[in-house]
């Protein structure tokens, strides 16, 4: 019998089964003769975890021995989703696990479903971090992720009478086998207090006397690479009361209060902030940011000092990646550590800081750039504010030398925003202190250079790069679409595409092959069946598999235009209603699927969710319509729902107003799974068009450069009749809730249609009609679908990460020997 062994633990089914039973008995503490699906999931997870830990240890040892330059990826959000399914794929032990379980009377797929999502993030930015961690591990890069271990992840969405309600996501309720608590890896993090000047060794020094100290405890999450033993670490910090404080109690009340107050420290890592883009300047948010940054930097500096004693070598050993501005306080914190704790000179410290940081921004909207009110800064981080002043002073001097006394420009570029309320501009701080700045698609980077950060681009053109996002094909094909994965490997006669995704392009050769097409359609059908079952369970709506499954799943936001989608559905409904019987037979049946969470405080987004339900109620119960049109809202959209929905979709919509989606990564997941895209030329779509050709997609709407003009003219131009008609239906209460929908209708009428729904409506309907026509021709549709998958290689996060490694971080692979 072959033995799959790369550590102490063997990976054959018999050994796995032994381990599973061991964990049933000793970890889960159940009888090995009677345990349920969840307990079996726990035991299996612990068996997989043991294997991860072996590889994790070997990897860390190896990195330590080789001491390469390491990348530290700092992010306040990671949307990891489930770990079991991903780990067994990357370890290459899925079949063995399935066999081991089947002999015990369990089904692997059923157990994998037991796991809840790790949802420590909001949306695109957070899932991108997770995809990038997978690629960093797979490509053997010596990388670490650092973040916060929130006790409550992103809120759960429940729908009552069509309205969104938020519920806490206490994801740790049933334990988390995928993390390792490191009680001995902990650091004090300071807040508040004051700054004093002292003389140390004859030199004047600033000393920060904190008002509060909180302990950061490490939780390590192993991230296995695919087809390699390398397993990197995602270290998340949890806040615990600091040991340092002695409780001097004079009475029981003091004693109890002292304990209660200490316990308040834990609040810092309690809950993830939902992204509403313009949410600014909250004390707890600033404390979260500093907390994770301070602990991470203490950890990083400690690791550096273990091996080196000259800080000038720091930039040769450390790259620090800022995932948006959320961790940008790190630049100031590193400065503070070098100045106040290592007693380096300003010049030397600044030199080091400028060589280690790189900054990626994920937004287009200038109003979404983070600002922190100065007095809040002064209270929470008094020493940091001083350092920011010093950085800004030096920067302003340098700038004056270059551009003269252009005070308007100087004030635009200043890190400190003057005004009634003074603010610290976190993006300006990040740009000034980073050696590279990048957007997340080519179009986005152009926008940064010509608009959002134009002044900085003029000053430092060499700092600006562009890096188009990517997603990992391991999760988005291999884990979530096993049938497609098998088909691809069969036709390419290799599994190498799983780590060399450019090989997918060879599918082009078979795109018209009837045999492949037959198999391709079968795969889609299986996935549609799975999705249809899910829809029926979640919403009670029965859908026909012959219908085109048309999907829009993403966070709900005005710029993403779910409202446009719903108005399109209303138009379709209205057309069918008014059709002759003979014409009805020609209608391509559709199932329109929408899913996504609205930020809790974003009223218009919540109204869009309610509208979707109101329209669905009407259409789905109209016996006149039957299977020709259904509308369903999928509640509580998250990573594992996406894994189910994407493979089962025929068409997916990415319809943001051009110039608003920095990149978009959902589109890439659909593309890989052979779903056709109906999209505007926004963000990364532009590059998808280049790869697979506009003829294989349904592109519509105003182009990025047309948007400003259209906006100017918007108030004077009448929206098309069809558009006014469907909005009127909503306004007049055709779907009920007349008063409630009024403010929603107001956002697209009376010259206030900022996101240009009216102006894009006609071309949207044309694109939809083109999709209908294409769907009727099954062979043509299938060919377009194959070509979508075949052209998706460029959108793998492997490509993105290789590019960052070479051009931004300057890191090289450090592979564990087999
Ligand atoms: C800010 C303040 C307070 C609380 C939360 C936030 C916040 C959290 C997340 C703000 C923005 C956040 O994420 C932005 C984001 O997800 N951007 C998306 O990033 C993707 C990956 O680069 C892109 O593909 C999307 O186009 C972009 O919208």
UniProtKB/TrEMBL annotation:
Name of the protein in its database record: Alpha-1,4 glucan phosphorylase
Cofactor(s) required for function per UniProt: pyridoxal 5'-phosphate
Gene Ontology cellular component list: cytoplasm
Family recorded in the similarity comment: Belongs to the glycogen phosphorylase family.
Single GO MF descriptor: glycogen phosphorylase activity
Keywords for the protein's UniProt record, in alphabetical order: Allosteric enzyme, Carbohydrate metabolism, Glycosyltransferase, Pyridoxal phosphate, Transferase
Coiled coil stretches, renumbered: none
Enzyme Commission code: 2.4.1.1
Catalytic reaction(s) noted: [(1->4)-alpha-D-glucosyl](n) + phosphate = [(1->4)-alpha-D-glucosyl](n-1) + alpha-D-glucose 1-phosphate
């Amino acid at each position: 019998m072959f033995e799959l062994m790369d550590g102490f633990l063997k990976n054959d089914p018999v050994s796995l089964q032994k381990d599973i039973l061991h964990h049933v008995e000793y970890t889960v503490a159940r009888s090995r003769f009677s345990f349920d699906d969840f307990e079996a999931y726990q035991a299996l997870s612990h068996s997989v975890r043991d294997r991860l830990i072996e590889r994790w240890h070997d990897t860390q040892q190896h990195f330590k021995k080789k001491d390469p330059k390491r990348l530290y990826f700092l992010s306040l959000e990671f949307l990891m989703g489930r770990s079991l399914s991903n780990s067994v794929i990357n370890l290459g032990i899925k079949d063995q696990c399935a066999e081991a379980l089947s002999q015990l009377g369990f089904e692997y797929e059923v157990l994998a479903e037991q796991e809840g999502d790790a949802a420590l993030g909001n949306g695109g930015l957070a899932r991108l971090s997770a995809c990038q961690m997978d690629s960093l591990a797979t490509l053997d890069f010596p990388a670490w992720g650092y973040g916060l271990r929130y006790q409550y992840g992103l809120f759960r969405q429940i729908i009552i009478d069509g309205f969104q309600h938020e519920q806490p996501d206490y994801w740790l309720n049933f334990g988390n086998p995928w993390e390792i608590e490191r009680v001995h890896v902990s650091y004090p993090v300071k807040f508040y207090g004051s700054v004093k000047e002292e003389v140390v060794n004859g030199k004047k020094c600033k000393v920060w006397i904190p008002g509060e100290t909180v302990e950061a405890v490490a939780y390590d999450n192993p991230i296995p690479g695919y087809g390699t033993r390398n397993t990197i670490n995602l270290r998340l910090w949890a806040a615990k009361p600091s040991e340092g404080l002695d409780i001097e109690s004079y009475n029981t009340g003091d004693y109890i209060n002292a304990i209660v107050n200490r316990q308040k420290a834990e609040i810092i890592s309690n809950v993830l902030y939902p992204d509403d883009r313009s949410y600014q300047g909250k004390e707890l948010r600033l404390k979260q940011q500093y907390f994770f940054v301070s602990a991470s930097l203490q950890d990083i500096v400690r690791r550096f000092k273990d091996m080196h004693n000259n800080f000038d070598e720091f930039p040769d050993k450390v790259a620090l990646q800022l995932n948006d501005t959320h961790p940008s306080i790190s630049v100031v914190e590193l400065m503070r550590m070098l100045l106040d704790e290592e007693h380096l000179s300003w010049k030397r410290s600044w030199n080091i800081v400028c060589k280690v940081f790189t900054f990626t921004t994920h937004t287009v909207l200038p109003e979404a750039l983070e600002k922190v009110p100065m007095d809040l800064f002064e209270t929470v981080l008094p020493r940091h504010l001083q350092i920011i002043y010093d950085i800004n002073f030096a920067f302003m001097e340098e700038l004056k030398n270059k551009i003269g006394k252009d005070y308007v420009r100087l004030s635009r570029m200043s890190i400190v925003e003057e005004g009634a309320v003074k603010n610290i501009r976190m993006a300006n701080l990040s740009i000034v202190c980073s050696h590279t700045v990048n957007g997340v698609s080519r179009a986005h980077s152009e926008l940064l250079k010509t608009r959002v950060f134009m002044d900085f681009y003029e000053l430092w053109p060499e700092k600006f790069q562009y890096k188009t996002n990517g997603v990992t094909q391991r999760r988005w094909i291999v884990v979530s679409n096993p049938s497609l994965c098998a088909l691809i490997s069969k036709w390419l006669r290799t599994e190498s595409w799983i780590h060399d995704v450019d090989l997918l392009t060879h599918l082009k050769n078979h795109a018209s092959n009837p045999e492949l097409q037959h198999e391709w359609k079968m795969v889609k059908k299986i996935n549609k069946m799975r999705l249809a079952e899910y829809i029926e369970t979640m919403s009670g709506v029965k859908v026909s598999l012959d219908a085109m499954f048309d999907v829009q799943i993403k966070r709900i936001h005005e710029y993403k235009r779910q409202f446009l989608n719903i108005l399109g559905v209303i138009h379709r409904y209205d057309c069918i209603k008014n059709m002759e019987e003979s014409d009805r037979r020609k209608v391509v049946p559709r199932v329109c699927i929408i899913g996504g969470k609205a930020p809790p405080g974003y009223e218009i987004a919540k109204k869009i969710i309610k509208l979707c339900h109101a329209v669905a109620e009407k259409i789905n119960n109209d016996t006149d319509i039957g299977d020709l049109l259904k509308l369903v809202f999928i509640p509580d959209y998250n990573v594992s729902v996406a894994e189910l929905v994407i493979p089962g979709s025929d068409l997916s919509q990415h319809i943001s107003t051009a110039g608003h989606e920095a990149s978009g990564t959902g589109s890439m997941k659909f593309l890989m799974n052979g779903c056709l895209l109906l999209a505007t030329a926004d963000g990364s779509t532009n590059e998808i068009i280049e790869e697979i050709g506009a003829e294989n997609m349904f592109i519509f709407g105003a182009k990025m450069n047309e948007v400003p003009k259209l906006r100017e003219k918007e108030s004077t131009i009448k929206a098309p009749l069809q558009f006014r008609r469907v909005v009127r239906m909503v306004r007049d209460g055709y779907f009920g809730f007349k008063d409630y929908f009024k403010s929603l209708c107001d956002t697209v009428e009376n010259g206030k249609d900022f996101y240009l729904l009216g102006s894009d409506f006609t071309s949207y309907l044309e694109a939809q009609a083109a999709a209908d026509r294409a769907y009727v021709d099954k062979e043509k549709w299938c060919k377009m679908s194959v070509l979508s998958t075949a052209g998706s290689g460029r959108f793998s996060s492997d490509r993105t990460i290789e590019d960052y490694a070479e051009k931004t971080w300057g890191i090289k692979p450090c592979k564990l020997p087999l």
